[in-house]
Amino acid sequence: MTNPFLRRATEYIRDDSAFLAIVSPEPLTTFVAKHKKRELLFDHPVRVIGTPGSGKTMMASLVEFRLIESILRDQSSENNRSLASVLASCGFTQDERPTIAAVRIPMESEYRDFWELPYEPAVKTKLVLALIQARTILELVRNVTANRRRRVSDIKFVPRDGAGAQLEQIGGSDAESIVVRARSVERAIYSIGASLLPPSLENIPKEASEPYQPFEAIQEIEIDWDGSPCRLRPLTILDDVHTLHPEQFEALFRAIARREIRFARWMMMRMDALSPNAVFRSADADALPGLKAERDYLDIFMQTDSVRHDERRQFRRMATDMADRYLRLVQPLRDRNYNRFRDLLSEEPPRLTTGQLNELRALIDREQRDRGISQDRQGKIKQIVDRYIKGAKSIDLGEDVQLMMYRVLLHRYIVRTTGLTGNLFADDPEPRQPLRVKSTIADAARLILNDKFNRPFHFGLDDLCDASNENAEVFLQLAGALVERMETKAIRNQDPALTPAQQQSALRDKSKEMIDSWRFPFARRVRALVDRFAVGCRDVSTEPNASLGAGANAIGILEVEMKDLLASESETALILKYAIAYGAIVAIRDYGQGGKNWCLLELSGPVCLAYGLTLNRGGFLERRTTDLTLVEEEV
Fold first, then answer.
1. Percent helix, strand and coil across the chain, each rounded to 5?
2. In Å, how far from its chain's centre is CA 595?
3. pLDDT tens-digit profile of 483-502?
4. How far is it, in rounded angstroms, from Cα 376 to Cα 364?
5. Taking a C-beta distance cutoff of 8 angstroms, is the pair 47, 299 a contact?
6. pTM for the full model?
7. What stretch of H or E contains 511?
8. Core vs surface per residue 523-544: b (16+ CB within 10 A) or e
């Protein structure tokens, strides 16, 4: 049986019951229910933007009307009750009745093909828009009748005030006539795009050339719900609009942003369809000239711009829920009654072997002797470590971590006393700045232990979630690599739970495979850029005095320099755009440190796994935009 973690979630969409069994409501909660303009998400056009695998299609599929009706009609399962609660918080239902009739329209390659037709751009845009509207009407009818609780004739399309002429264009006021008209429009326009030789403008079929604007004519849909009328706001979700030609997307976006349109409309798209400024979330980056964010349209970014600690906590909750759902589909583990993914990832702190501990002690003794550190000073440093250990909550503070923490403080003492002399009676100067221990010193000790002794550093469910960069598909790919090893152990009648060493090995191998498989524009240059930054971060992170605490996983460019780079429209800006759009790096704007504002280019979780870097945020190396250009020139 195929490992379900390695299947894309979209493969489950055709089977409603299988889809509902594995889908998590958390993306809706995070990105829709908590959106600062939630009450306007069905009034303004909305761009839903994310990296590949961030859950755009899964979210669009979950809110389709047929699934919402199935969820509301069957509240016998805890899963459906939780989904219903989230749908209500997002505005798709109210008082256990639907309020929105949403349909998903996949923007497949045939739509882009229309841009190659030998017509004026306005004509091509009109054809595509009419095709989208016709298919939306047909999908609405299919969704509303999918559960066999009503017929087409039971549906009532409610026009907006003053839409008499437009009603005639869309086939009249009764649903059956509207469906007939939509089918004729779809058939006529499809024949144009699919023709080996498209017709001349004069010979375009009448059904395709006549005005057709149901998005402007129809305001609501009325159906029967448990014996009483129920009014629904129609919502069309155009999935994968980034596949359109850039000029085609611009024209389509302008067309559906018209205020006369009564349909709610969402567009699901990848970041690479945006400009570098928009990908970097620049404050002044509007979609198109004349269209202003939050006035003419709204954005939902599938990576939030909220407090980043909260962002991680939200994703951990979502990913844990998702992993537990997928785990039920793994038969060898289900047969052994494993239903919590966390239980299969051991978090027992690893330990160095006796030989490695002796090697570490010898290293410390040699360094103390070479530097002439007095016994009294050694005792003081040890007391600082001991005091921290007594009050710490972490369970990963064994003898190996304590020894490495001591070594870090030892080297900090050396750095802080260089050039100082002691008093007349002892060569034991006090450091310029007192030595203190925080959790970041313990984190640094674990990272350096990994570097020197290959002590496992990345393991446990929280690390797995944090390494996924709030991306569902990345999480499932990494989790899938772990599940493969679990299944193998289970089939051999071994305990399927993975040790920290087994987890780190699987995650590192999978991360390297993911990086090697990058096939997006400028992928080779992005790999070189990432390698240069990661090696630099690793070198600094493993310095004996841990100058950056828990370590670095980013570079920082001054905001003023980054703004100039993005305004330049240079190739470097494009390379960074694709690096962010495809999840190689994450941009953090206006990060304040040292009295300056920085743009952090943070390496993604898989890169951190592959290079053994910290997943803690905030540690960075100061760089200039010229450093980005130098890497390009070396490729």
1. 55, 15, 30
2. 30
3. 999 999 999 999 999 999 99
4. 16
5. yes
6. 0.86
7. helix 500-516
8. bebbbbbbebbbeebbebbbeb
DSSP per residue, 237-279: EEETGGGS-HHHHHHHHHHHT-TT--SEEEEEEEGGGS-HHHH
pLDDT tens digits for range 163-184: 777 788 898 888 999 999 999 9
Closest among 245, 241, 336, 342 to 297, alpha carbons compared: 241
Residue type, 365: D
Residue 100: helix, strand or coil by DSSP? strand
- In terms of Cβ atoms closer than 10 Å to its own Cβ (0-12, 13-18, 19+), residue 483 is buried
Burial of 421 (0-12, 13-18, 19+ CB in 10 A): exposed
Burial class of 462 by CB neighbour count within 10 A (0 to 12, 13 to 18, 19+): middle
Both tokens of 360, joined, read: 């570490």
Q: How far apart are the first and last CA of the chain?
A: 42
Task: Give the DSSP letter string of 104-147.
Answer: EEE--HHHHHGGGSSS-HHHHHHHHHHHHHHHHHHHHHHHHHTT
Which residue has 């030892």 as its token pair?
410
Rounding to the nearest 10 degrees, give the CA dihedral for residues 61, 67, 68, 71. -130
Spatial separation of the C-alpha atoms in residues 24 and 417, rounded to whole Å: 55
DSSP structural state of residue 24: -
Residue carrying structure tokens 């694709």: 578
Work out the burial of residue 625: count CB atoms within 10 Å of its CB; fewer than 13 is exposed, 13-18 middle, 19 or more buried: buried
Report how far residue 32's alpha carbon sits from residue 511's, in angstroms, rounded to the nearest whole number.
30
Residues 335-358: what's their mean pLDDT?
Answer: 95
- Give the H/E segment covering residue 229: strand 228-239
- Token pair, residue 175, equals 């649903």
Is 90 exceeded by the pLDDT of residue 18?
Answer: no
Taking Cα atoms as reference points, which of 235, 261, 230, 246 lies closest to residue 160?
Answer: 261
CA–CA dist 456, 87 (Å, integer): 41
Contact status, residue 551 vs residue 457, Cβ threshold 8 Å: no
Nearest to 478, CA basis, from 1, 11, 3: 3
Counting Cα atoms < 13 Å in the Cβ hemisphere of 89 gives: 17
How far is Cα 619 from Cα 170, in angstroms, rounded to an integer?
59
- What is the distance between the alpha carbons of residues 401 and 529, in angstroms, rounded to a whole number? 32
Q: What are phi and psi of 265, to 5 degrees?
A: -145, 125
Burial (CB count within 10 angstroms: exposed 0-12, middle 13-18, buried 19+), residue 253: buried
Q: CA dihedral defined by 4, 8, 13, 18, rounded to 10 degrees?
A: 10
Q: How far apart are CA 336 and CA 274, in angstroms?
A: 47
